[in-house]
């Protein structure tokens, strides 16, 4: 007489090992180890992608399929394949919805929705995002972290559509929610976002105050700290407080060397503060720094030599900026800086 387990496996035409997920346990462990590693390389990500695709292929049921797709999306995202990651996470979201509705289990819904908000923002394409945000507002009405992320997503949407004041409202709403979590990094990033929109609406004193608080919060998180320091110096320049801007630049110059793009931006700001082109020139010649930041150094040097009446050097840097039709000379006003 067949056991109940044998009847199930026979009815589904699968082996007992597959039903119990014993055949994929080791692969799942290997995949998670690769995803959690701090020493990820192109080779390890390629290995992780292969394993993730294998696990998706054999996955049974909404739970196994949903989590397998989520992990596949994580790898695609790490490989900067944002469109592919977005499509994969949308498929995972279908499973998450079923699990939530049938079993009142919202764990996968929470994980995948957070990931989807990242790809909406990275792709700057927001079709159907309101449906996702409404689902999250309803499913997690008391979850401060989720509500902080939905506000952050709405902030980016408003910004992309040119609604700066609305974006600022959502930035403060996101800050309010993240303050409830006690997560210092998230709080600091939210302060940086709010300060950004205060800067854009020319409320420089408020922007500087927020950034000063953010710097205090993330002294142990260097990359986030570099963002706050760069924006703080930029805001101090707008306030005309060049002496304080120079002190801040000196304080964090050594630390910034570990982050070439932030080092480059701080050196460009140093040219503005000290009225000396040498610092931006160093950035323009440094191949450790991304092309985007080197282009900013050209903008800066163009402005510098143009202001000094040195038309020959100004024109040479103008040409290095490719004389693009959308080029604006006031590089500090560029949002990407």
Structural commentary:
With 337 residues, this protein is mostly helical. The chain has a domain of 138 residues: Serine Threonine Protein Phosphatase 5, Tetratricopeptide repeat (Alpha Horseshoe). The chain is built from 18 helices and no strands. Helix 5 runs antiparallel to helix 6, helix 5 packs parallel to helix 7 and helix 10 runs antiparallel to helix 11. The longest helix is centred in the N-terminal third of the chain and has 22 residues. The radius of gyration is 25 Å and the shape is globular. The termini are far apart. About 1% of the residues have low confidence.
Number of helical runs?
A: 18
Tell the overall outline. Answer: globular
Largest beta-sheet details: none
User: What is the name of the CATH architecture of one domain?
Assistant: Alpha Horseshoe
Helix content: over 70%
The beta-strand count equals: 0
**What fraction of the residues are assigned to beta strands by DSSP?**
under 5%
In CATH, what is the class of one domain? Mainly Alpha
What Rg is obtained from the alpha carbons, in whole angstroms? Answer: 25 Å
Q: Output mean pLDDT.
A: 89
Give the CA-CA distance, first to last residue.
Answer: 73 Å
CATH fold-level assignment of one domain: Serine Threonine Protein Phosphatase 5, Tetratricopeptide repeat
Taken in chain order, the helices and strands follow as HHHHHHHHHHHHHHHHHH
- Could you state the oligomeric state of the chains shown? single chain
Low-confidence stretches: 16-20
Which secondary-structure class do the elements indicate?
mainly alpha
Protein name: MalT-like TPR region domain-containing protein
Organism: Tumebacillus flagellatus
InterPro entries: TPR-like_helical_dom_sf
């Amino acid at each position: 007489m067949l056991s109940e387990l044998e009847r199930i496996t026979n009815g589904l035409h699968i082996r007992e090992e597959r039903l119990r997920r014993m055949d994929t346990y080791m692969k799942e462990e290997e995949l998670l180890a690769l995803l959690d590693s701090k020493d990820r390389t192109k080779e390890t990500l390629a290995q992780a992608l292969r394993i993730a695709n294998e696990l998706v292929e054999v996955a049974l049921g909404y739970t196994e399929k949903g989590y397998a797709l989520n992990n596949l999306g994580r790898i695609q995202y790490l490989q900067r394949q944002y469109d592919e990651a977005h499509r994969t996470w949308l498929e995972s979201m279908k499973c998450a919805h079923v699990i939530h509705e049938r079993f009142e289990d919202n764990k996968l819904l929470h994980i995948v929705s957070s990931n989807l908000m990242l790809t909406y923002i990275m792709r700057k394409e927001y079709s159907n995002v309101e449906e996702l945000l409404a689902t999250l507002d309803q499913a997690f009405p008391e979850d401060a972290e989720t509500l902080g992320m939905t506000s952050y997503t709405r902030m980016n949407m408003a910004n992309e559509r040119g609604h700066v004041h609305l974006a600022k409202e959502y930035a403060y709403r996101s800050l309010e929610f993240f303050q409830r979590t006690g997560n210092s990094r998230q709080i600091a990033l939210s302060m940086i976002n709010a300060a950004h929109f205060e800067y854009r609406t020319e409320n420089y004193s408020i922007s500087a105050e927020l950034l000063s608080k953010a710097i205090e919060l993330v002294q142990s998180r260097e990359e986030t700290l570099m963002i706050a320091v760069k924006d703080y110096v930029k805001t101090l320049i707008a306030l005309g407080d060049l002496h304080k801007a120079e002190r801040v630049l000196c304080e964090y110059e050594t630390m910034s060397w570990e982050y070439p793009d932030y080092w480059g931006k701080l050196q460009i700001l140093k040219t503005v503060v000290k009225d000396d082109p040498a610092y931006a020139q160093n950035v323009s010649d440094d191949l450790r720094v991304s092309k985007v930041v080197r282009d900013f150094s050209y903008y800066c040097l163009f402005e510098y030599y143009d202001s000094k009446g040195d038309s020959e050097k100004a024109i040479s840097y103008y040409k290095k900026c490719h004389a693009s039709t959308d080029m604006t000379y006031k590089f500090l006003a560029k949002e990407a800086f």
